[in-house]
Amino acid sequence: MVGPETVIAPAGWEGRLVEVVVPAVSRSSGAVTAWCLEVHDLVLAKLAAGRPHDMDFVHEAIRAGLVETGQLMIGIDLMPASHREVTRERLLGAIAQAAPRPRSREEHE
Residue 4 falls within a domain, yes or no? Predict the structure, then answer.
């Protein structure tokens, strides 16, 4: 379980948490409520962490259109100063990597 003290995320993330209610799976269990990071805050936190599996998530979120890159760029200014530049560099790299690549001549044929 991740506690709030563990998260390196944009300022104000607590106010943007998204409530997810999972219905009971049996009669003896109740519904479960989870409070999840808003997707842009989540991607920025993963960029700050920068572990390989975090970066995989970031790349897939960008490719799948789950996040708006402009919103991520704005969110960088809300990151702790200690993580702002590395987060910006990783985001720019992820955006470049997710950009459609020109098809080679062989692929056209």
Answer: no
Answer for the pair 62, 95: CB distance below 8 angstroms, yes or no: yes
Distance CA 35, CA 52 (A): 25
The Cα–Cα gap between 79 and 40 comes to 12
Q: Is the dihedral of CA 4, 9, 11, 15 positive or negative?
A: negative
Give the torsion sign (CA, 61, 52, 98, 83): positive
pTM, two decimals, is 0.84
Q: Domain total for the chain? A: 1
Q: Kindly state whether residue 59 falls inside one of the protein's structural domains.
A: yes
The per-residue pLDDT of the chain, averaged, comes to 91
Q: Is the pLDDT of residue 105 over 80?
A: no
Closest by CA to 75, choosing from 63, 91, 51, is 91
Range(s) of the domain holding residue 78: 38-99
